[in-house]
Amino acid sequence: MSNMANLNAPKMMKVENYLTWKNSFTSFIKSQDARMWTCMIDGYVAPTRHVEGRVKVISYDKIDESEKFMVNAEKKALAVIKMSLPEGIKHTIKHCGTSYELWKALEKRYQSSSKQRVGGRASDEEADAVKEEGSNDSSAHLEDNKNATQAFMAEIVHEAETTISDAESQVKNTEAKVDAEVESEAEKVVADETTEVHKEEVQSNSVCSRCRELQGEVDRLSAQN
Fold first, then answer.
1. Which residues, including other chains, have CB under 8 Å from residue 69's CB and lie 6 or more apart?
2. In this predicted model, which residue has the larger pLDDT, 157 or 87?
3. pLDDT tier at 137 (50, 70, 90 boundaries)?
4. Closest of 193, 16, 198 to residue 117, by C-alpha
5. How confident is the model at residue 50 (pLDDT cuts 50, 70, 90)?
6. N-to-C CA span, the chain
7. How far is CA 134 from the centre of its chain?
8. CB distance 77 to 36 below 8 Å
9. HSE of 178 in the Cβ direction (CA atoms, 13 Å)?
10. What is the spatial distance between Cα 60 and Cα 77, in angstroms, rounded to a whole number?
11. 121 SS3 class
């Protein structure tokens, strides 16, 4: 994705040239990053997760890389549109918080008035822009659907890979835990057996010692007799 410094987008010098600017700006955005164009025409939806049974918006530092790309694309799209507008109309679009809202607000405010000028004082360039708009929008819609589908499939694949990776990690952790428990239990059994053997040896030594004492007593009595 291009840096903001490299986004030298076409400027709308005056609102009367809206259609000319719109076509040039559309081509420019598509050449920069398809994700920016997707945000502008389909709308950007912040990443969410199910947390404790509720859907919550996730902060930037906790989302994955594909989601960060879309966040950055939305920010750049909104900023580039604003920088391309004449200073005189910027105060009218302050309420627009997303690139989609801003793009639609401009269409609603200026597109109809620009089309009305085609039969009168509009330039040849603007007239051509109006004539080509239908076919451009149609092909753009097909391309956008294709890009959206590809992005959706990529997200599904990424989620599946993440799920598999998490499952493998969980299996490994479980196996390691079981191995550790088995080893600990085996060590305990060995320790218990060793202790029991030691007790038996002590008892045996004690019995032998007593036997020797009794034998000594018998021998002493025999000698006296």
1. 1, 35
2. 87
3. low
4. 16
5. confident
6. 115
7. 36
8. yes
9. 6
10. 18
11. coil
Rounded Cα distance between 223 and 225, Å, is: 5
| Residues 203, 147: Cα–Cα separation, whole Å | 84
**What does the pLDDT look like over 95-132, one tens digit per residue?**
999 999 999 999 998 987 665 554 444 445 544 544 55
Interatomic CA distance for residues 52 and 42, integer angstroms: 29
Q: Nearest CA to 77 among 122, 139, 33?
A: 33
SS3 state at 51: strand
Residues forming beta bridges with residue 68, ordered by sequence position: none
Q: Would you state the pLDDT for residue 215?
A: 82
The three-class DSSP label of residue 50 is strand
Model pTM? 0.50
**Residues 179, 182, 186: CA angle, nearest 5 degrees:** 140
Residue 219 has, within 13 A of its CA and on its CB side, a CA count of: 6
Question: Radius of gyration over alpha carbons of the chain, in Å?
Answer: 40
CA gap 57, 50 in Å, rounded: 9
Helix ranges restricted to H, 14-106:
18-32, 34-42, 65-84, 99-106
| 148-158 burial: b if 16+ Cβ within 10 Å, else e | eeebeeeeeee
Query: For residue 61, what is the DSSP state?
Result: G
Helix (H) or strand (E) holding 190: helix 124-224
CB 40 within 8 A of CB 9: no
